[in-house]
Specification:
Distance between the termini: 19 Å
CATH architecture of the largest domain: 3-Layer(aba) Sandwich
Largest sheet: 8 strands, mixed
CATH superfamily of the largest domain: Type I PLP-dependent aspartate aminotransferase-like (Major domain)
Strand content: 15-25%
Helix content: 25-40%
CATH topology of the largest domain: Aspartate Aminotransferase, domain 2
Number of domains: 2
Shape: globular
Length: 373
């Protein structure tokens, strides 16, 4: 692929197919408010992900706001989450008038540590907002057991796990709700977009009101809602992209195997964890660089790759507690020092999509072996 080479590249539908479907929008002049393409995509995604309820949104952040709102959590109550995530995860908690409480990550998976979550619970805790970071699945059983034992809501930020299954079960059926992002950087996208899924069909009406101002009909507004509706052009992109996902995943699986093939024998380079029973989304390919063993830092590799036009990403660095709104907030941990404070300086996501060519991989390998850069 011509340089620069970025960590993500969106799949794109055939332009002619998009124009043909968009012409129907021009004829009907139905642009939003649950139009026919919106309804088709919603049904297709519910079937694809094996969920009882799948409700589309204009973006993932609005969907996350609505997911927290739907459980009517006590104002000012605490929601435990991870600092190793995109800022929107914490922002959604704060925008709902709730208090984010940051807990440490598991050293193996880098997802929210159940032990740290248990330690973070107080009499003000109302929910857990866990993140399947990089596409690695959280400890579902342990988090559910904690939520059940303490009477907490369990919501998953599933932005990185589109199409993931666990022992044949769709990832969107776990917990009380899952929130997906369909931003252009994601495996499956609708340009911008998002979705809430649950395992209960009864949730559809509640979510519908949340994304449409609480409007029941022309004369009734029955609850407080927001404008979270996806438009018809976004839905068309989604309908055309959905059949392309499997081929893209297959390319990424091959790329994963290639990366692992030359990285596995490099001391100090930690690879993504294997998770038996999990069919992964193939969203990102993160590595963890232990400078004391490898001899070079994550930042050294990042800079060397950048010099040859390859833009890896320091996902997620800085972490949420490094940002101004949350700076100084503690990270609850069962360790002497929170593991996330160490790993944030070590994690690096490599370019991971079907546009990564053999010569790109060869150059990346040369950087890691110290032959260039």
């Amino acid at each position: 692929m011509p340089r620069p080479l970025y960590v993500a590249r969106p799949i794109m539908p055939d332009e002619g197919d998009f124009q043909r479907m968009a012409s129907e929008v021009w004829k009907s002049r139905i642009l939003s408010n649950g139009g026919p393409f919106h309804q088709r995509l919603e049904a297709a995604l519910a079937d694809r992900l094996g969920v009882s309820t799948a409700m589309l949104f204009n973006n993932g952040t609005i969907a996350l706001l609505a997911a927290l709102k739907m459980f009517d959590l006590p104002p000012g109550s605490e929601v435990i989450t991870t600092p190793l995530t995109f800022a929107a995860t914490a922002h959604a908690i704060t925008w709902n008038g709730l208090e984010p409480v940051f807990a440490d990550v598991d050293p193996e998976t880098l997802t929210l540590s159940p032990d740290a979550v248990e330690k973070a619970i107080t009499d003000k805790t109302s929910a857990i907002l866990a993140v399947h970071v990089y596409g690695t699945v959280c400890d579902l059983d342990a988090l559910q057991a904690i939520a059940t034992r303490h009477g907490l809501r369990l919501i998953y930020d599933s932005a990185h796990v589109f199409g993931t299954t666990v022992n044949g079960r769709g990832i969107g059926t776990f917990g009380d709700a899952s929130v997906f992002s369909f931003h252009a950087t994601k495996l499956f996208h609708t340009l911008e977009g998002g979705m809430i899924t649950t395992g209960r069909s009864a949730d559809a009406e509640t979510i519908y009101f949340l994304r449409n101002f609480g409007i029941k009909n022309e004369e009734e507004v029955v609850s407080v809602g927001i404008n979270g509706k996806m438009n018809e052009l976004q839905a068309i992109v989604g309908l055309l992209n959905l059949p392309l996902v499997e081929a893209e995943q297959a390319e990424r699986r091959r790329l994963r195997a290639t990366y692992c093939g030359f990285l596995a024998d490099l001391p100090g380079i930690g690879l993504p964890p294997e998770q038996p029973g999990v069919v992964h989304s193939e969203q990102y390919f993160p590595i963890v660089v232990d400078e004391t063993v490898f001899g070079r830092s994550r930042d050294d590799l990042y800079d060397a790759l950048k010099r040859i036009g390859i833009y890896a990403r320091k996902y997620f660095h800085p972490i949420c507690t490094d940002f101004e709104p949350y700076r100084g907030r503690p990270i609850v941990t069962t360790r002497n020092v929170a593991h996330v404070e160490t790993v944030k300086r070590r994690v690096l996501c490599l370019p991971f999509h079907s546009g990564v060519e053999a010569e790109d991989v060869a150059d990346i390998e040369k950087v890691f072996r110290g032959e260039v850069g």
